[in-house]
């Protein structure tokens, strides 16, 4: 690739992938880097990583991502990232009522953890309630039929704080940030080139053109609007999140609790000592917002349209609390929202040049709802690609794939081995007051 260390590089998106890319490029000696982010602050409210926490677990059904996460966890333990990484362990179970698919997925994850020489020393089987209470005494619920394993190698990261830390570090290294109106990218600008076309830069919503030798699009769930060539390779999908607001005493009592995850019910984290919020997420097949004309799902334009918790998710979260922390089961749920990510049908990322654009534009996307754990290293996937001979992505699974017209409209929820249930359309679950009608 012809990009020199002083050439202008534009990164679209100041979320997890964009910030990490800015940091890694800067550390490789690139000196002319600008990040464009449509929110007016970082962590951006549109980022899937803007909130309190994300699970950092290394066991994957696929050893490729296990190895990467082990690398990421080592990086989480370095000075910039360590304040935001909490190795509380991961209590990974199913309840007694879990469908067969959930139980089978759990077994595959457990086998992955037990197979790995670094992780297996940290894995404890949990045959029932007594074992679970040994690992997490604060779980006073009946845990009916629960079993699984506890992995002390894993934990969670405070995602909002980690984004803010990398933002400050990148700024200190000379990366420029354009936020809010100046940072909202309206379009990628292409010009004719010797072979086909190439990207010449971006135009922001306020009409300004910013030229670049290389553009990296790391726009999370917003990627489809900027790079429509992706088609159904990547669709915007969401899961809901909600919180319980605890007292100081309740937060203290739950200090050190592992990430607690029942595959059929959802998960929660150690409460945040600053806000006293305990975050809950029900997972599932997710919600999509399909444009009937193109068949591609996009995140809604406003945050208000996502500021609710679907009824069935609320029921599921209350069940999770009743079985684990019963004193919280009837508490009000606050800060409810749908959180949007960029989903691919094989859960693989996309880290590649747009075809036939003279290596002028890279798409870094397809996080598929499991990308935050890679935050300390994801930017190195871009610097590796810049150093690749012939500009060819050597990781075949991360290459640009031609859009599959048979892939449907991104409702592959039920086909993804690690998720339960089908994807639903946003229009079918929106509460009447949030509806556009
Ligand atoms: C509910 C939920 C739970 C999750 N749990 C986990 C977990 O436990 N562990 C884990 O590893 N991962 C988890 N993830 C996934 C993780 O959050 C994502 O992998 C990660 O945030 C992806 O980073 P990104 O930079 O691609 O996208 P984002 O972090 O979403 O950032 C994209 C940024 O691009 C900006 N943008 C978009 N369009 C434009 C534009 N036109 N102009 C300028 N800026 C633009 C947005 O404002 C946003 O800030 C979860 C995701 C969700 C939704």
How do the helices and strands line up, and which of them pair or pack?
Elements: E1 9-12, H1 16-27, E2 33-37, E3 54-56, H2 63-76, E4 85-86, E5 90-94, H3 100-115, E6 123-126, H4 129-135, E7 147-151, E8 155-157, H5 159-172, E9 176-179, E10 185-192, E11 197-204, E12 209-211, E13 214-217, H6 223-226, E14 235-245, H7 248-253, E15 259-262, E16 266-268, E17 277-281, E18 287-288, H8 311-324, E19 334-343, E20 350-353, E21 361-365, H9 378-386, E22 424-425, H10 426-429
Helix pairs in contact: 1-5, 1-9
The structure holds flavin-adenine dinucleotide.
The site of flavin-adenine dinucleotide has 39 residues, from helix 1, strand 2, strand 3, strand 14 and strand 19.
Count the strands? Answer: 22
- Text of the CATH class of the largest domain: Alpha Beta
Q: Provide the low-confidence segments as ranges.
A: none
CATH architecture of the largest domain: 2-Layer Sandwich
The hetero molecules present are: flavin-adenine dinucleotide
Pfam families: DAO (PF01266)
Protein name: FAD dependent oxidoreductase
GO molecular function, one term: flavin adenine dinucleotide binding
Organism: Penicillium cinerascens
Give a written overview of the molecule.
The protein has 437 residues and is of the alpha/beta class. It has two domains: 1-53 and 158-234 and 344-403, FAD/NAD(P)-binding domain, CATH 3.50.50.60; 87-155 and 237-339 and 411-437, D-Amino Acid Oxidase, Chain A, domain 2, CATH 3.30.9. It has ten helices and 22 strands. The protein has helices at residues 16-27, 63-76, 100-115, 129-135, 159-172, 223-226, 248-253, 311-324, 378-386, 426-429, and strands at residues 9-12, 33-37, 54-56, 85-86, 90-94, 123-126, 147-151, 155-157, 176-179, 185-192, 197-204, 209-211, 214-217, 235-245, 259-262, 266-268, 277-281, 287-288, 334-343, 350-353, 361-365, 424-425. The strands form four sheets. Strands 5, 6, 7, 14, 15, 16, 17, 18, 19 and 22 form a ten-stranded mixed sheet that branches. Strands 9-2-1-13-21-20 form a six-stranded mixed sheet, covered by helices on one side. The longest helix has 16 residues, at 100-115. 51% of the residues are buried. The mean pLDDT is 95. It binds flavin-adenine dinucleotide. Flavin-adenine dinucleotide binds at residues 12-18, 36-39, 44, 46-49, 54-55, 183-185, 218-222, 226, 239, 241, 281, 339, 341-342, 367, 369-373. InterPro entries: FAD-dep_OxRdtase, FAD/NAD-bd_sf, MTOX. Residues 9-385 form the FAD dependent oxidoreductase domain. This is FAD dependent oxidoreductase. It comes from Penicillium cinerascens.
């Amino acid at each position: 690739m012809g990009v020199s260390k002083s050439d202008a590089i534009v990164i679209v998106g100041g979320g997890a992938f964009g910030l990490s890319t800015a940091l890694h490029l800067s550390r490789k000696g690139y000196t002319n880097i600008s990040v464009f982010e449509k929110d007016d602050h970082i962590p951006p409210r549109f980022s899937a990583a803007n909130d309190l926490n994300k699970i950092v677990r290394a066991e994957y059904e696929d050893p490729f991502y296990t190895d990467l996460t082990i690398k990421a966890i080592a990086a989480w333990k370095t000075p910039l990232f360590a304040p935001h990484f909490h190795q509380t362990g991961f209590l990974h179970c199913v309840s007694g009522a879990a469908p067969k698919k959930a139980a089978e997925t759990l077994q595959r994850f457990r086998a992955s953890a037990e197979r790995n020489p670094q992780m297996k020393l940290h894995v404890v089987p949990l045959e029932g309630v007594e074992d679970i209470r040994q690992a997490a005494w604060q779980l006073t619920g009946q845990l009916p039929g629960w079993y699984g394993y506890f992995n002390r190698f894993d934990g969670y990261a405070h995602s909002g704080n980690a984004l803010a830390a990398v933002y400050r570090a990148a700024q200190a290294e000379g990366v420029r940030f354009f936020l809010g109106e100046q940072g909202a990218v309206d379009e990628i600008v292409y010009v004719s080139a010797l072979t086909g076309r190439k990207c010449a830069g971006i135009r922001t919503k306020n009409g300004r053109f910013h030229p670049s030798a290389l553009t990296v699009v790391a726009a999370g769930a917003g990627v489809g609007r900027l790079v429509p060539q992706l088609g159904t390779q990547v669709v915007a999908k969401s899961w809901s999140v909600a919180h319980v607001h605890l007292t100081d005493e309740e937060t203290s009592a739950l200090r050190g609790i592992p990430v607690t995850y029942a595959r059929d019910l959802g998960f929660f984290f150690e409460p945040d000592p600053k806000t006293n919020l305990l975050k809950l997420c029900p997972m599932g097949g997710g919600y999509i917002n399909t444009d009937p004309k193109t068949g591609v799902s996009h995140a809604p334009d406003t945050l208000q349209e996502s500021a609710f918790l679907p009824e069935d998710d609320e029921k599921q979260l209350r069940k999770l609390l009743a079985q684990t922390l019963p004193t919280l089961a009837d508490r009000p749920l606050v800060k409810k929202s749908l959180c949007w990510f960029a989903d691919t049908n094989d859960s693989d990322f996309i880290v590649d040049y747009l075809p036939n654009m003279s290596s002028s534009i890279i798409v870094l996307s397809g996080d598929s709802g499991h990308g935050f754990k890679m935050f300390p290293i994801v930017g190195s996937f871009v610097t590796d690609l810049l150093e690749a001979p012939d500009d060819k992505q050597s990781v075949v699974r991360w290459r640009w794939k031609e859009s599959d017209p048979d892939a449907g409209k991104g409702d592959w929820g039920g086909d993804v081995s690690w998720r339960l249930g089908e994807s639903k359309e946003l229009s079918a679950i929106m509460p009447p007051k949030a509806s556009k009608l």
